[in-house]
């Protein structure tokens, strides 16, 4: 990572008994990480230094927007994500449940978009795989974050890691700086921290520093439930359904206390995205959507007709980008003089499409294991100067923790990124083996979704803590 000489740098917090954590980004992953740390600060008395009364762990969220915000589209969290929320903090799960929308049935249901016949049903568990509007969920979680823990309007320019320095310096585009012992990049799919972590030195890594177009784009909208029921009936509007078909699919589910229907229509696209390196959105049209589904069953066409348009028939379309084609080879800074005290999490590390409904949940899992590891690091810091005794530097503990995080999370997250692409091929009848075979589809979908849902999040945390204990030699 590059070093910037800036005379305006102010002294950092050098207390050896406090771990200072910088969280870059206040989206789903960043807020969950903060809430996991906040819960541990409030519940673990050992995180208070008895010699001076100071907390042994401190964190700050640096968010580039003027406030916490997410787009209004819907998002679902699978059973593994809910288990991770509960382990992060009971308040995280309770807040989610307050705004999560129940489905009419505890099943994922797939419909043949050409015939309107049921293809397959997959049980999600009692009240499993609930969702809601992103903005509603984020707002509930944000209420739990103390205001003094957040700085808004902060866009990272670069981060300086120096081998001879314990602290890291974060340089923002407004000229200000901040210091931390560890930096966690939760800054989304177009992550600046990922670019810095990978420190491009070869073409494949340069490509991995940026997300890439999957040749899928989508139209999405929140449709008033009254209009949805009038068009497709109460059963279809009040229950989660997916409509499969050639080179496209549609997913619908209720959100906003069933006041709206979240509609997402995903379309395959052979052309390059017009704003590959700039924007995830482009101008589309209602006619573009209707053309893609013109040969589908009437129900699917009615759903597409629910999309709003402006007076000139225009609609915004969203590109689906991910990190599958050029995955990051690691989530921790280890190249070109970096000290291994900066990492990425959530979409910043392993952005994936929405097709398995797993991306947000992966970020929650990341937040859980990071909060557990960083708590353990804080507990391992010296509480006072120990004359005549060697004390392990914070940087050594942080490096060990982030390497364990990388080792624990890399295989799982990369599998989800890869298999999300496989899932969309199944939905859009593009897999050469499964094709339109309903029985094969059900078998493959069951295996794929269950591997996401049945992940042992408790075992993940315990394995990470055991791994950290081995690395630091039983302090």
From TrEMBL:
Domain FAD-binding: 136-377
GO biological process: secondary metabolite biosynthetic process
Keyword terms: FAD, Flavoprotein, Oxidoreductase
MF (Gene Ontology): FAD binding; oxidoreductase activity
Pfam families: FAD_binding_3
Assigned protein family: Belongs to the paxM FAD-dependent monooxygenase family.
Full protein name: Salicylate hydroxylase
Organism whose genome encodes this protein: Rhypophila decipiens
